[in-house]
Amino acid sequence: MTAPLRLFELVLADGRSASPYVWRIRYALAHKGLPFESVPVGFTDIPGIGGGRFKTVPILEHGTTMLAESWDIAAYLDATFQARPLFSAPAEVAMVRLFESWLLTEIVRRIVGIYLLDVHDAARPADRAYFRQSREARFSGKRLEEIVAGREQRLPALRETFAPMRLHLAKSRFLGGDTPNYADYIALGTFQWIASVGTLPLLARDDAVLHAWLERGLALPGGDGADPRLRPLFG
Ligand SMILES: N[C@@H](CCC(=O)N[C@@H](CS)C(=O)NCC(=O)O)C(=O)O
């Protein structure tokens, strides 16, 4: 009998799990058919977990093991529970890492400039001052309101940047092919994040290819697609 898995995850004022990195692990656990206990935390609770060893969530606890960093957690899950692997070969890991690099540099960078204030506003009240101070420090002291100012004008460029995903998903049910792989979980995690906080729809109403993929992705095990707290992603 193996010890239970506990997943420390970031929650918002409405209790919804918000972190894109946690969402990857939620999908990964469901992919592997592993039940887990959720430990909801706010930004300001993280320094109190595991004797102050961790700076970010997700954090996974399994018996006496506790680890952070979503890639390390994914590797730990595959090494510890070999059934239903997340990755079939090292070459797949490399390609998914390439996809993640694209997503972070091209998509997430733009998302931050559009949704940072929404994350603040959706956070637990106790976390808001920390969130504002830490994020404004990353932007040389610029206020969150200034960072997102004029965001509607930047939305078309962000939507256009999804072009490689549209091209691929026009021919393939998932980024991973006929069935989802970790690239899907990474991308879906990003959409789960924005669907948790966004007050401006990320995608255009007529974005049929991404719409169909997202419907499939939110309905996957671990996807939580029927959560009434989800905000519109299309508009
Ligand atoms: N490289 C980390 C990144 C995780 C991360 O950035 N998590 C954010 C939430 S989305 C966090 O915990 N931030 C804590 C903070 O800002 O204090 C991973 O892959 O797990």
Describe it for me?
With 235 residues, the chain is an alpha+beta fold. The protein folds into 2 domains: 76 residues, Glutaredoxin (3-Layer(aba) Sandwich); 129 residues, Glutathione S-transferase Yfyf (Class Pi), Chain A, domain 2 (Up-down Bundle), CATH 1.20.1050. It has 9 helices and 4 strands. Strands 2-1-3-4 form a 4-stranded mixed β-sheet, covered by helices on one side. Helix 3 crosses helix 4. The longest helix has 33 residues. The radius of gyration is 18 Å and the shape is globular. It starts with a strand and ends in a 17-residue tail after the last helix. The model has no long low-confidence stretch (mean pLDDT 97). Bound molecules: glutathione. Glutathione binds next to helix 1 and helix 2.
Instruction: Outline the low-pLDDT stretches.
Output: none
Number of spatially distinct domains: 2
Q: What is the beta-strand fraction?
A: 5-15%
CATH classification class of the largest domain: Mainly Alpha
Q: Give the SSE string.
A: EHEEEHHHHHHHH
| Helicity range | 40-55%
* Rg calculated over all Cα atoms: 18 Å
The hetero molecules present are:
glutathione
Mean pLDDT, as a whole number?
97
**Number of helix segments?**
9
The profile of the biggest β sheet is: 4 strands, mixed
Assembly type of the chains comes to: single chain
Q: Reading side by side through the largest sheet, how are the strands ordered?
A: 2-1-3-4
Number of strands: 4
CATH topology of the largest domain: Glutathione S-transferase Yfyf (Class Pi), Chain A, domain 2
